[in-house]
Write a structure and sequence with these properties.
Blueprint: H1 2-9, H2 15-52, H3 55-59, H4 69-76, H5 80-87, E1 91-94, E2 97-100, E3 108-111, E4 114-119, H6 120-132, H7 142-151, H8 158-167, H9 173-187
Antiparallel strand pairs: 1-2, 3-4
Length: about 190
């Protein structure tokens, strides 16, 4: 605003200063429009994600449904890279804590009861739950976890179980058994 006022007061002899001020004002207007557009895009993307993942608020991570960048982009008529950039490094405050918006994206795995499938994040949680309730002297193998998930209606290959277990920083069956025996020796 100061530049705009100064522009009106300048004389013709200060033409280069006027040009600088005009360019600065134009750049300022462009920046304000760009920020408003970014905020509008982020609000649209976040609204879509939260509507899609509404079960998360009731069920926690178990309630997260499969969702890919492509699905959001198609629904909003924007490019996938726009969705990716707008959600990068953005946190959202929820009743379940402050979380990264990217957390609500998850790939899909086949499930018997659902055409949509189940989110990979939900399967990772189920794997953690199975391992946390295992007998430490007879840890559950990845193949057995795969079978247990299959009985619950989730088609998850043994290799996928191993990958998700590693992503959760859970040791292999042999390592968990060895660690338990070592702990018994140290404390016993």
């Amino acid at each position: 605003l100061e530049y705009a006022a100064a522009l009106k007061k300048t004389s013709q002899s200060e033409e280069s200063s006027m040009e600088f001020i005009k360019n600065s004002v134009a750049t300022g207007h462009w920046l304000a429009r760009a920020i408003a557009q970014r905020n509008q895009t982020l609000q649209s993307v976040a609204t879509f994600i939260l509507k899609h993942q509404f079960a998360f608020f009731d069920d926690g991570v178990e309630g997260i449904r499969p969702l890919q960048l492509r699905m959001v982009a198609e629904a909003l008529g924007i490019h996938e890279s726009t969705v990716s950039r707008s959600t990068a490094s953005v946190l959202i405050q929820t009743p379940r804590g402050t979380l990264p918006l990217k957390m609500f994206f998850s790939s899909s795995l086949k499930a018997n009861e659902s055409e949509e499938g189940v989110s990979a994040r939900s399967i990772r949680r189920k794997i953690k739950d199975i391992i946390s309730s295992e007998n430490p002297l007879k840890p559950t193998s990845d193949a057995k976890i795969s079978d247990l998930l299959d009985k619950d209606g989730y088609k998850v290959a043994r290799r996928t179980v191993a990958k998700y277990r590693e992503l959760e920083n859970i040791k292999s069956t042999a390592q968990r058994k060895r660690e338990h025996k070592l702990n018994q020796l140290v404390t016993g």
